[in-house]
Amino acid sequence: MVKAITSLQNPLIKNILLLQEKPRERKNQNLFIIEGYREIRLSLLSGFTITTLLYCPELILKETVNELINIGTPFEHIICPLEVFNRLAYRKNTGGYIALARQKELSFKELHLSASPLILVLESVEKPGNLGAVLRTADAAGLDAVIICDPQTDIYNPNAIRSSIGCIFTVPVVISTSLDTLNWLRSSKIRTFGTALTAEKFYHETDLCQPCALIMGSEATGLSDIWLSGADDLIKIPMRGKIDSMNVSASAAVVVFEAMRQRNFR
Questions:
Q1: Looking at residue 92, what is its pLDDT?
Q2: Which of 46, 62, 132, 174 can bridge 169 by disulfide, Cβ–Cβ 3.0-4.6 Å?
Q3: Whole-structure pTM over 0.85, yes or no?
Q4: Owning domain of residue 30
Q5: Based on the structure, what is the number of domains in the chain?
Q6: Hey, which bits of the chain come out as E strands?
Q7: Cα 225 from chain centroid?
Q8: 71-86, pLDDT tens digit by residue?
Q9: Residues 125, 47 share a domain
Q10: CATH assignment of the domain containing 97
């Protein structure tokens, strides 16, 4: 028998709202919220564990419920009336679905790298929207992994998941420190290219066909000294305007797709 929730005072509803708003609660409970049919489906196909699925009959296509239920391990599914669902929905056009899922931590050892890996490293990323946009680029390019060093935002922030349109589930993501990441890349014989205004080389004049990691710093402070002194090489994007920096997600897309062009998009 399918359960139903009718009140905003239900403990589950209160907990969903708490998980949406509080990074500490997401960490303590090892849970996060996913909205939208596409995002939930991608999470299930990528091996994430859904604990609870809420859906609003007025907003969904009936056949999609069974499609989700039949992917992965069994989970609780609950009917949610429109007035309650609208209070829960973090964004519009969620397709009538909200899920609770368990967080997943990936280690360096669990990465499956290609013969000539291309990896993107983000240091101290602050804005969840930028993180999500970078993950969309990583998915589009088919990167081997994204490594997030010393993050200033929670990767399971609802805004990060929303802006990634589910790519947070399709791209292998490792959370680490800059120093541990640099040591792992060195031991894996992956050349590191830090992006910096002080660089003498332009990104398009650099051989990006070899196994390499592209290192992006925060918009506010750029790369830390660990990368400025520890990277194998520094590269930059030509800037012809009045400003000296671009949005980190735009910069990542520019450099990543130059690497893909050099690799004949393979």
A1: 65
A2: 46
A3: yes
A4: 3-102
A5: 2
A6: 3-4, 31-35, 50-55, 76-79, 97-102, 118-123, 145-149, 173-176, 191-195, 201-202, 212-216, 233-236
A7: 25
A8: 988 899 999 999 899 8
A9: no
A10: 3.30.1330.30
